[in-house]
Each structure stands twice: as C-alpha cells, then as structure tokens.
C-alpha cells in the first residue's frame, strides 16, 4: 500500500478530529461566558438549534432514504448529540473545562477497551487513564470538585460513547454531512423546547444571538462535520483514542478564553493524555502504511 494511501487513511482523518476538538472547545469557552444570561438550557438550545439550521441549509438532506435499522441508529445518534451537549454544559458550569473533558473522555476510552484486541492499544489507553486519574486526584490546597459537575461530565461521557458507535453506523449509511444535519435536527427537537421554556426571551438578545451563532459554528456545525468525515475512514477504536486529547485542548481553551487555571500536577496529567493520544495516532498510521 502506498505512503499516500496510508496518509489518506489515517493522518488526514486524524487531523480532522484534532481540528474538531480545537473548534468545539473554543466554542465551549464562549458558551460558558453567557451561562449567567440565558442559563445552560438556553445556551444549549442556541447551539443546537442554530447548528441544525446551518447544517440543513448546507447539506440539504431531503433525499435521504434509510432502512429501519439505519433510522434507529440515526435517532439514537441525534438523541445522544442533544443529551451530550446538555450534560457537558451542566458540567462546564460547575467545574473547569479541562477537568470536565477529562471525565467525559471515559466514554471514548470505554469504546477503545471494548473494541480493541491489540496490546499496543491497551498500553496507550492505560497511559491515558493514568493521566485521567492524576487530573481527578485533588492536590493539597485545591478545592474538591463539585460532585454534580462530575456526574454531568460522566453522563456526557456515556453519550459520547454512543455518539461514536452510532455515528459510525450512520456515516456508513449516508454522506457524513447529511448524517450530521439530520442528527442535529433530532438533537434540536430535544433541546430547543427545553431552552425556550427555561430561558424565554433572554435567548433573543442581540449579543446572545451573536455568541450563540459563534458557538453553534465552532462547537457543533464545524466539528461534527469534521468528525463525521473522519468516522468514515477511522475505526471507532482509533477515533476513541484520538479524542482522548480533548481534556488538554479544553484546558487550554478554558485558560485562554476564561482564565481558568489548573494546578501544575493537572497540567502534567494533561501532558500524559497528549502523549497517549500521539502514540495511538502514530501506531495507527504505522499499521496502515
């Protein structure tokens, strides 16, 4: 197999995943900034609702025809998108972005462990778990994490695992962009009525709508499209290991946009997670060559 083919199969989809993670976490930092104005449900509704409109206009999935099994996968995929967004925003409101993503990444790691048969993958996954453990162990003088924040982050992690599994199935049944558009519509059906009921007219303020549009593009429309394209070329196992770098990217976004500071030990743990992700990517590329 040629080197060019190996690059197309692993490196480019991997870069798409990394780009999606940067985009989604910068968007999350902007979203957290308007939590006090419209509430968590309101921000989620803006993000998902605007994303659904943008993606429908971009991909126009009107001609999609699905078998019953694929339709069920699409419904689960869309529902997990909505619940994942809602859960992680509740976590962001209570604990730092990097810590929340470190807990959420348990979902993708579970996919890795359940689908892997190679020793190398277990080694990289174990290293990522070590980084996760160090992130969660409270350092002396550091306040303990909000238990509700931990619970919501763990719930988002479970949704993330379903997103990977069913997103892979949906991406095999239709074009990736159309799958994301339809999934986002399903997510909007869940989150927009909830946001409207809890936030009301506050969601229609000019500044809020502008930030909502920015968040929708950065946190949903762009990253989910990139991820769906990557899922068409990467296995669920490789994708799951790649996204283990999310806590590092989230911590950086939280620091740059919100001024969230983590302890030195937590940054060391984040570096370990980055190493695990880089090692997994290099191993996957070597296999494909």
Automatic annotation (TrEMBL):
GO terms for cellular component: membrane. The chain crosses the membrane at residues 41-59, 71-89, 95-115, 122-138, 150-167, 179-202, 208-226, 238-258, 264-285. Residues 148-278 form the EamA domain. Keywords: Membrane, Transmembrane, Transmembrane helix. The keyword Membrane applies. The keyword Translocase does not apply. It is a multi-pass membrane protein. Its main location: membrane. InterPro entries: AA-Vitamin_Transporters (IPR050638), EamA_dom (IPR000620), EmrE-like (IPR037185). Signal peptide: none annotated. It is found in: Membrane. Belongs to the EamA transporter family. This is Membrane protein.
């Amino acid at each position: 197999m040629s080197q060019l083919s190996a690059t197309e199969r692993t490196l480019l989809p991997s870069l798409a995943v990394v780009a999606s993670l940067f985009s989604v976490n910068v968007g999350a930092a902007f979203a957290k900034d308007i939590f006090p104005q419209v509430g968590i449900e309101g921000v989620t509704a803006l993000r998902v609702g605007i994303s659904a409109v943008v993606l429908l206009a971009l991909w126009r999935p009107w001609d999609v025809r699905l078998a019953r099994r694929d339709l069920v996968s699409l419904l689960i995929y869309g529902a997990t998108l909505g619940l994942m967004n809602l859960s992680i925003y509740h976590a962001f409101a209570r604990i730092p972005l990097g810590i929340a993503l470190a807990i959420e990444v348990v979902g993708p790691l579970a996919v890795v462990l359940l689908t892997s048969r190679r020793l190398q993958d277990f080694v990289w996954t174990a290293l990522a778990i070590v980084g996760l453990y160090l992130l969660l162990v409270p350092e002396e003088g550091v306040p303990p994490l909000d238990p509700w924040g931990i619970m919501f982050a763990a719930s988002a992690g479970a949704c993330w695992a379903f997103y990977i599994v069913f997103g892979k199935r949906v991406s095999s049944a239709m074009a990736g962009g159309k799958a994301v558009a339809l999934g986002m519509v399903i997510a909007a059906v869940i989150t927009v009525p909830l946001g409207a009921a809890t936030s009301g007219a506050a969601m229609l303020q000019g500044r809020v709508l502008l930030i909502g549009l920015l968040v929708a593009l950065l946190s949903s429309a762009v990253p989910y499209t990139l991820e769906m394209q990557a899922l068409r070329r990467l296995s669920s196992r490789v994708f799951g290991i790649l996204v283990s770098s999310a806590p590092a990217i989230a911590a950086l976004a939280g620091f740059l946009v919100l001024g969230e500071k983590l302890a030195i030990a937590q940054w060391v743990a984040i570096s370990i997670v980055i190493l695990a992700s880089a090692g997994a990517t290099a191993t996957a590329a070597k296999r494909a060559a």
